[in-house]
Amino acid sequence: MPTPSALASRLTTFCMNALGAGNALDAKLHRVVHGGAAGALVTWFSDDTPDLANMSIEDVTSYLFFVENGHYSILCNDGALIQLSFRINKGKICHHRLAYIPCPVLFDPIRLVEESLHDVVLEQLFKGDPAVLPQRGVVRFDYDPDAATVDHPASHLTLNFDQTRIPTARTFDAATFLTFLDRHFLATRQSVGRLNQPFSRDGTIDASDVAFANSPHFFWAESP
Question: For the chain, what are the domain ranges?
């Protein structure tokens, strides 16, 4: 497991490379925010730090808020957002938020030369043309053991709705998440690339978790 500063540096390098290669409209530096006993938060630079864990992903308002306030790691060329955030305590991941948030509208990127993405999205929405309003859902992998309950798995995949929490067998690292996005969500558009050197991940489902282990969940083998 890399140190918080090493992880922040790795994420920053990846994001800047994506931007430099023309594979993103914008990308953020990443920083370490020390939180005492809670551990160190590795996240993107922004002017404020809202409670993203409790912010809905079900509506366009959240997308516009993220865009306006720079709450993303990468802003993709099609307007999609990638968020990469980890909390590390005593050398282990104790929380992560890894999200892919598609742009709610289709648009010609050339418009961004003279208009803001925020204004372009609103204009496309107000047109009401179904052809520019694709049905794309948010994909978010969260890990939050402090919030775990019988109905809220510590590590889970959220699709489209905040209350959709599909258990996952282990935590994610940035490399695995970005490879997952690149292969399944970005391949038909434009890749932002892949991050090398995945780090070890803790398993979050074992035989004792009867409610999750004996029901459908998201599983993959640990990297060698």
Answer: 4-102+137-213
